[in-house]
Design a protein that fits this description.
Rossmann fold; mainly alpha
């Protein structure tokens, strides 16, 4: 199961009140995957001052603490897959969803637009 960017931020901060009981159960019982695009979005949020920690600090902590894994699918395949997701103009969301859809996996997200259009989104 892939994790959206806000999921990593909340896990890193320990803010479990943001998660539904179902989301907590999924996090505790599934393999946790992350699109490399999440790293870029985390770094962007750090650069503009919305996060106090950079992407490496967040991802390293979550790799060690809960075993998240970064997807290693070649970017060309993900870029081609992302063409199917023209419902969003957000490049971060488009690539994150493409990573999940390429592998036919679920995506844990509270993003309403993603949950509306990506049928394998969960919350």
């Amino acid at each position: 199961m892939y994790l959206d960017t806000h999921v990593l931020v909340w896990l890193f901060s320990g803010d479990m009140d943001n998660f539904s009981p179902k989301a907590i159960d999924l996090i505790e019982n599934r393999e946790l995957l992350v699109s490399p695009m999440v790293l870029l979005e985390l770094e962007y949020l750090h650069e503009i001052g919305r996060l106090n920690y950079n992407s490496n600090e967040i991802v390293s902590f979550l790799k060690e603490s809960i075993g998240i894994k970064i997807s290693s699918i070649p970017f060309e395949k993900i870029a081609i897959e992302s063409i199917k997701h023209s419902w969003t103009r957000d490049p971060f969301d488009r690539i994150i969803v493409a990573n999940a859809s390429y592998e036919d996996k679920e995506l844990l997200t509270r993003d309403r637009k993603i949950t509306q259009y990506y049928k394998k989104s969960l919350w």
